[in-house]
Amino acid sequence: MASKKSSPAITELWPGQSVELLKALHILTRDGALNADSRRKLKQVLHLVQLLRPSLDSIFAAKEAPVLADLGAGKSYLAFILYDLVFGPNGRGEIIAIESRPELMASARALAAQSHFDRMRFVAAPIADARVEGAVDMVTALHACDTATDDAIKFALKHEAKHIALVPCCQAELSQLLSGTGSHELHQLWRHPIQRRGFASHLTNVIRGLYLEAHGYKVRVTELVGFEHSMKNELIIAERHQLSNAQARGELATLLKRLPARPALVADI
Length: 269
Ligand SMILES: C[S@@+](CC[C@H](N)C(=O)[O-])C[C@H]1O[C@@H](n2cnc3c(N)ncnc32)[C@H](O)[C@@H]1O
Fold this sequence. Notes:
This protein is α/β, with parallel strands linked by helices. It is built from 8 helices and 7 strands. It has a 7-stranded mixed sheet with strand order 3-2-1-4-5-7-6, sandwiched between helices.
């Protein structure tokens, strides 16, 4: 499984990246080829790993055995590629994948054993219920659906993660809450369903960023890859540098006061 031979036809692969692992993840076909969908997925994940490099370097510099939790892991593409390219070669640290679908965790566990990726753990549970002992240094959540991204934020806070990387996806909670608020002074902003979805999706991520800032994180919001590759394209990177930030908390409270609805994430603000 741990073959490091790379196919000359696949220019997307990084040096040392395991072709056999990518075949087992069905990113590469048995012949070692890439189809359009998997090319997009691979490109996205590799680009994300590149963007996460400074955070990864920082956790490896700070800790002998850093722990990264990938939440809403799905088939654990990101976790496996991070192990193959970063945790494996470093020879230390652990990756915990958390995913609510047990069958995905079972097959990922089997693949990790087959690949001798000994420092990977798989937890089949909703993020909010997952029991993980001890500190987690970095949390990632790639396309964790709707409020699962908020559960990832809560998980990161509970485990005092210094670094967080979120690529939110299909945020629907606030859009639902805003429908039926037609008498509000700002309702023109979300009157039409298509605009409501876009506005609520944007607002949800604004609130998430400010919430993280209120908890002492420095937040950077950037593009993952061009929109031609994915509509789920916003990357929120956060690094904690203080316990809390009163100014950000105040700004979040002011914003929330203007709205007729608020996501459960900020129920305590
Ligand atoms: C769109 S997939 C993304 C999977 C993976 N992160 C990736 O990018 O390939 C979202 C995954 O999150 C899982 N999920 C959704 N809500 C969850 C929750 N509350 N707790 C744990 N997993 C969740 C789903 O079962 C699904 O596998």
